[in-house]
Design goal:
This protein has two helices and ten strands. It is mainly beta.
């Protein structure tokens, strides 16, 4: 069942709301940017994400095929969410950083299922051979 959570960057300029069901699974990817930022996200449809404040504080980073927008606060540098369109993950999406949720209980996160994606090799449907570092 979907539950609404609120999140923010470290300085609080960027704030958002997301409706999600942790039981549907979370994800960790081995692509270069997710590995370097230790991004742990959950995919939601665009209608389940709402930016509440800080659009003017967001910077956008794209790389490689430019399929995704990595949004981060230009004041504190925290990446709060990613959005884009990747056919292999169901089209248009937001991936919210679970580490940026302000009102989630640690036990909820500990129980959330995690799926691993081999983004480094554009093999989104496969799990990478090594995941312990993610």
């Amino acid at each position: 069942m979907k539950k609404t959570y609120h999140g923010s960057c470290h300085c609080g300029r960027v704030r958002f709301e997301v409706a999600m069901d942790l039981n549907e699974g979370t994800g960790k990817c081995n692509c270069t940017i997710c590995t370097k930022s230790r991004f742990w996200g959950i995919l939601v449809k665009p209608e389940d994400f709402k930016l509440l404040a800080g659009e003017d504080a967001l910077s956008d980073y794209q790389f490689s095929r430019r399929l995704t927008h990595h949004q981060f606060c230009r004041t504190c540098g925290v990446k709060t969410f990613v959005h884009g369109h990747i056919k292999e993950v169901g089209g248009a999406f937001y991936s919210v950083s679970l580490n940026c949720l302000d009102d989630i209980d640690a036990s909820e996160l500990a129980e959330a299922p995690v799926q691993f994606f081999d983004g480094r090799n554009d093999a989104w449907r496969l799990s990478p051979p090594e995941t312990r570092h993610l």
